[in-house]
Amino acid sequence: MRGVCPSGPGHLCPYRQGLHRRVGLILPSFYTALEYGGAFGVSTLFLVLPPLMVWKERYGDEASPLMTRPMVPFGKLSLMSMWKAAGALILEQGAEKLGVLDKISEFASHIQS
């Protein structure tokens, strides 16, 4: 019975529980890397790739006539606006992670006073 925990099926093995915590204690930058990877990986996966797949299917080199009406109206305009929104969100996340937004707010408050 390979892969079954000694405490029985349906239970997580003790050595598997808290693995991320132990790695985080040994390598403090692990959490930072996980945070960056999660933020930008999920953004790419759910914000950039779907419009890219639709674009490739509709307007790619081997584009064939569509069998059904498109679910996203307005053609290229809507796909480009999705990319623009995705790019803005990804840039905003990057600026927040780098601390650029904090510096801008500090600078703005310094100018006002």
Describe the protein in words.
- The chain is mostly helical and 113 residues long.
- The chain contains 4 helices and no strands.
- It has helices spanning 19-26, 29-59, 75-98, 100-112.
- 0% of the residues are buried.
- The mean pLDDT is 77.
Describe the protein's topology.
Elements: H1 19-26, H2 29-59, H3 75-98, H4 100-112
Helix pairs in contact: 2-3
Brief overview, please?
The chain is built from 4 helices and no strands.
Radius of gyration: 23 Å
Number of strands: 0
How many domains make up the coordinates? 1
Helix content: 55-70%
Shape: flat
Strand residues, percent: under 5%
Order of helices and strands: HHHH
Query: What can be said about the biggest beta sheet?
Result: none
Q: What distance separates the N and C termini?
A: 70 Å
- Tally of helical segments: 4
Unreliable stretches = none
What structural category characterises the helix and strand content?
Answer: mainly alpha
Mean pLDDT: 77
